[in-house]
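The following block was generated as part of the benchmark described in Methods. Ligand: adenosine-5'-diphosphate.
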Amino acid sequence: MHVDVSPSNSTRVLFLAAEADPFIKVGGLGDVAGSLPRALRASQSLLDVRLVLPFHSAINRAAFAARSLGQFSVPHPTGALTAEAFELDVNGVPVYLIAGDLIPESAPVYSSNMAMDGPKYTFFSVASLELARHLNWQPDILHANDWHTALAVYQLSRLREVDPFFAQTRSVLSVHNLPFMGAGAEVSVHNFGIPFSLDKHMPEWARGFPLPLGLLTADRIVAVSPGYAQEILTPDFGCGLQNLLSTRSAALTGILNGIDTQLWNPITDPLLTTPYQSGQWNLRGENKAALQTAYHLPVDPDIPLIICIGRMDPQKGVDLALDGLRLAAGKKWQAIILGTGIPELEADARRLATDFPARVRTELRFDSRLSHQLYAGGDILLMPSRYEPCGLAQMIAMRYGCVPLARSTGGLRDTIRDADINPDGNGFLFSESTPQALEKRLSDVLTQFAIKEKWHQLQQCGMEENFSWDQSAVQYVRLYQELMEGSL
Ligand code: ADP
């Protein structure tokens, strides 16, 4: 058996996620799992945090030379399944990639087909626990993220009753997006011989869903912003789990996500036309001019350039943004929309560009390079999310001097101070999720854009914010410490 040791006084954290930058990134979870383990290790040298990911086919095997740690068994009622672990080190963080029959060679990270994702993530969750055993590396903390790995938390709660290897392991479950509970995965949960919950607080329909099972049994639940931690206790945001969550409210906290401030740094960003820092508004302007030129838009610093970056999903309020922009047609603005997602929303975005050929461009793809250039060249980030557990785009935008206009919800409300109310405001908020409300607020913002001195002050406030992982990492470290000090 492979034996792997940590210093005897270290706290061992097994951190599970479906995606992590730089291996594979689909959305914000990829940013978080790519940055938090490193930040945790940096903030507390005795934290031995190790990241576990599925070895997705989209992970570039040539770029990430991983060493095989051999095969191990994953229990299954019809006979053990085989998994293989690979190991490498990225930025000082040990990373394990798990391959196996149920992590198919050709599957995307997330598929709309739960017949594929259910077995894959059930397998991955169970295999992650077995990996620890294979490595003979007893975790002090199992830290899972979202539905994809929540089942590991549930399994742990059952195993530690009977299995000395896991008897002392505590669990943390971070919730990045409550509505995605793993509905449909209950088939594979059952097939793996994992019993559904009979807890009286668990709604009937949720008894076999991975996320609710994790929420029921995690020692600590973390929502990714204090605002979202409050919201999910209410019927509007609790997705039917508000009563279950209320029974767990003593275990629930909100810790704001951070951003990777090395990756997202306008002073050193190699993807920009011209790097710049706060105050160097002319240099920043060169990035805007480059975008206007590249997209055959009128090259004019006085026309506000609105950007939208994100998944094309009703959550993100893409429809509100598109309709709101239509309503604001009488005003002077340009817009570049970058995103992929639901085909209808993509079609609506394309239609806006067709209807406003002189001022709207859409890029319906995932393009990290372009996102950097948009944050650097855009004046206003439009982010009218219907709900927003944390949101990274608004934090990145602020770091680049692009002013967010967002709906007042969850992490958006926690990170944006409306400039009309606060002298040190860093953006703008609106409440009602209607295109009319968006248009009204956008009109105000466009007016304020013209007052250069005030606008620069807003940009400066945003650029001075500390959205690094340092602060959040300190809170996670404290949480781990509390868990280690408390009794099980
Ligand atoms: P979510 O996690 O809900 O998708 P976040 O705002 O938390 O939203 O994080 C989204 C992250 O993904 C940001 O880093 C954003 O820049 C990036 N992103 C989203 N869509 C795209 C895209 N089409 N191209 C490039 N980056 C994108």
